[in-house]
């Protein structure tokens, strides 16, 4: 009999230790959920003029330039034209990317989980310092 009481108490204690309830219920009785992509705008820096190039323009330009250069000449001349086309295309693509122009904004967002995220976007669409936003696809949007 004592063994049965002891094993029942031990089982109850083990099951209680496995509980993962952390609260978090609202008055409605439903558990509140946090938004992984949500946060508050901490800072906005606006820039105009040349942008920092990511390299994508240079790569795309080199591919296009190399493809066009390969259509010229034959033999070693064709190889030289391909290389020259890739180099010129890479330089042109880099400069096009840098000079895409206009104004862009670096938006610093402190996410709900404490992370800090900086996104670069062309327009703010009403986003201001202190705005509650959701960050998706590299953009901060009003929530």
Q: Looking at the chains present, what oligomeric state does this protein adopt?
A: single chain
Query: Can you tell me the CATH class of the largest domain?
Result: Mainly Beta
Shape: elongated
The value of Rg in angstroms is 29 Å
Q: Report, as a whole number of angstroms, the end-to-end distance.
A: 62 Å
- Strand/helix succession: HEHHEEEE
Structural class: alpha+beta
Mean pLDDT: 77
Q: Uncertain spans, ≥5 residues at pLDDT below 50?
A: 21-32
Record the strand order, biggest sheet. 3-2-1-4-5
Secondary structure tally: strands: 5
Q: How many separate domains?
A: 2
Q: If you consult CATH, what is the topology of the largest domain?
A: OB fold (Dihydrolipoamide Acetyltransferase, E2P)
Beta strand %: 15-25%
Please identify, by name, the CATH architecture of the largest domain: Beta Barrel
Number of helices: 3
General description of the model:
This protein has 143 residues and is of the alpha+beta class. The longest helix has 23 residues. About 8% of the residues have low confidence. Helix 2 runs antiparallel to helix 3. It has a 5-stranded antiparallel β-sheet, with no helix packed on it. The chain has 2 domains: 58 residues, OB fold (Dihydrolipoamide Acetyltransferase, E2P), CATH 2.40.50; 52 residues, no CATH class.
């Amino acid at each position: 009999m004592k063994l049965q009481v002891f094993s029942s108490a031990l089982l109850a204690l083990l099951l209680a230790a496995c509980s993962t309830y952390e609260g978090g219920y609202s008055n409605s009785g439903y558990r509140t959920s946090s938004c992984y992509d949500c946060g508050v705008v901490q800072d906005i820096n606006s820039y105009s003029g040349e942008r920092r190039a990511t390299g994508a323009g240079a790569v795309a330009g080199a591919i296009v330039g190399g493809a066009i250069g390969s259509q010229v000449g034959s033999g070693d001349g064709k190889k030289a034209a391909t290389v020259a086309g890739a180099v010129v295309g890479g330089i042109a693509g880099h400069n096009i990317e840098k000079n895409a122009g206009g104004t862009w904004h670096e938006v610093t967002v402190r996410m709900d989980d404490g992370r800090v995220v900086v996104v670069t976007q062309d327009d703010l669409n009403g986003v201001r310092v202190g705005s509650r936003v959701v960050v998706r696809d590299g953009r901060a949007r009003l929530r």
